[in-house]
Amino acid sequence: MNLKCNCCGRLLTEKIYESGAYRSLTSLCTAYDGKTEVYFCRGCGHVQSVEITNIDQYYDSDYDILVESEEEDQVYEVVNGATIYRTEHQVNTLLEKVGLSSDIRILDYGCAKSSTMRALLNRRPSVKICLFDVSDRYISFWKKFLSEGCWATYVIPSAWDGQFDVVTTFFSMEHMARPQDALSQIFRVLKAGGTIYGIVPNVFTNTADMIVVDHVNHFTSHSLDYLLRSNGFKVTEIDDRSHRGALIFKAEKVTSCTNEAPEQEGIQRALYEALTIARFWKDIRLRVRDFELSISDTEKFAVYGAGFYGAFISSCLQHPERIACVIDQNPFLQGRKVNGVTVISPKDMPEFIKVVLIGLNPAYAKCLIGEIAEFRLRQLSYFFL
Fold this sequence. Notes:
By secondary structure, the protein is of the alpha/beta class. 27% of the residues lie in helices and 26% in strands. It has helices spanning 55-62, 86-97, 115-123, 139-142, 179-189, 221-229, 264-294, 308-316, 365-370, 373-376; strands spanning 14-18, 23-25, 31-33, 37-40, 47-49, 75-79, 82-85, 105-109, 128-133, 151-153, 164-170, 190-201, 217-218, 233-239, 246-253, 301-304, 323-327, 337-338, 341-344, 355-358, 381-384. The strands form five sheets. Strands 10-9-8-11-12-15-14 form a seven-stranded mixed sheet, sandwiched between helices. Strands 18-19-17-16-20-21 form a six-stranded mixed sheet. A hairpin with a 6-residue loop joins strand 4 and strand 5. Helix 2 (86-97) packs across helix 3 (115-123). The model has no long low-confidence stretch (mean pLDDT 92).
């Protein structure tokens, strides 16, 4: 297999991770029949997975992200009991980082439901917004806040060339098997001096990103910078702090841009971090099963987290039928079933539960669990990834 880097085009030969099972997990926490294989690029520091079979069809017809309702959203964090949703945080950060005048024109590229643009319009109704996605499955959502003619699917119309001041892309580039093509289209529709603003997972602070089978690209700051500059953009910011577990980037469309390879010291650091994460995921299945064996055979337990990390824990268990409940603070998830198990609020956790397996990003899990008042009142044993 001749796999080339999606950022710099170098032949990828250094495999750093391969899942032990022929079953993987998608970003929607669904099972995928196939291994997850991950490579590292010594040319630009990119981390890249082998793309899933029929990837274009998957995003056109099978990928349904947050489509249960118009309001459905993901929890970003809970502070002093107050829930902050990802859409709200994304709008706040966009407004902080990009000057949005009243007549500005924005294209949301790879937008899915585009809840961020809907929320932005509620705060800045004079902003002119258009949407683009590689599927027509979200049109029913778009119709509720935009007029027909303000969106396109599959192909961007030539009438949009050079028309936009800003193009946004929120958590879409990690899915793209051909990100160079997407950036070429974005360059085409931006005005001279226009801005591309986006967010992608940071594989070094959101370690699950490496094993999400439908995430082809696991960006590092080095590879993201190289990709943008090689497609005609002057990078003005790559921020790894303002959005937890993610990289926020901002770049300007220019007529010419130098594109030197990243310095090797940075590449070596990225390789070390990538290998550390790969080793973590190779070992974690055994750790989960060892912990399961340490619990009495008759004891039922809970899994905290109805997202990817929680689904991963469940997939590692020899006896997942011992999961009594899945706990999550997101009200949009409560009442649903995950692999046949009901998702409940922390306050509804049964009294007989003494053990909770924590399915959260290991970088923040202990801090987040420590903030749950209902757990502080109980004598609980925890397993952290």
